[in-house]
Write a structure and sequence with these properties.
Layout lengths: L1 H14 L7 H32 L5 H4 L24 E2 L4 E3 L7 H4 L3 H7 L7 E4 L2 E4 L4 H13 L4 E2 L9 E3 L2 E7 L6 E8 L8 E3 L19 E4 L4 E4 L4 E3 L2
Parallel strand pairs: 5-6, 9-10
Antiparallel strand pairs: 1-2, 2-4, 3-4, 6-7, 7-8, 8-9, 10-11, 11-12
Helix pairs in contact: 1-5, 2-6
Amino acid sequence: MKKYLILLIISFSFLYSDSSTTFIEKQKLIIKTKKIIEEEEFIARAFERYILENAKIPTLSDLKNNNYLSTTFSPTYFTEDDSKDFSIISRKNKMKNRLTLSVESVRINSGIADLYNSSTYRNRTYLDGTEIGIFIRDDFARHIYFLSSTADIDIVTCSDSNRDKYCIENDHMYIYKRGSDKSKDILLMYYKLSKFRTGPIIIVDDPTIYDNSEFEHIPSGAILFDIKGKKHIKTNKSIVRIQ
């Protein structure tokens, strides 16, 4: 109820705030604003689904196919001047904000900004300065996003030459970290991709590094075994040995 009351207030203040634009023109801007937000939500859902299905961060061009946004997907813009600003900032989990208030047709109707910037129609996106952030809801998708964005590389297929990176082999994820003396790599964990949410996840037997950020997005309740066979469980705050 509160959500719709806010929308009603924004809409009425916008529709009757400026006599320089007709009532019908303002209605059209409200409809266009809602459509733009819905498209951004659609892109955000496709963004997360692509990560889940491909274990990598997509660009807008990666999503423009029939599996995600469709090959003919073309975002709606407030004006033609906005189109040059739209993209997905892959390593920042953001989309560039297409609301350009300096454009006269939008600027003279300040209520459009209130509607566009509000959370009324937003579930997976949010305003972050001059960009639109994307909420990633799924634990595994957040985990993959963190690994890719931290290493600033796509997760690769394991080989002898990249054992110090995050990589996938035979449907298993291997997460390595370079040792402090740089003489060898430490295998922090590995797990079957389909078992990430519940485990078992095999982890290094060194509790002093369980607070490393690589362990952060393991879901609470997942079962873990260290390389010596000791059983652990992931809680909201830490990894706890239970055997």
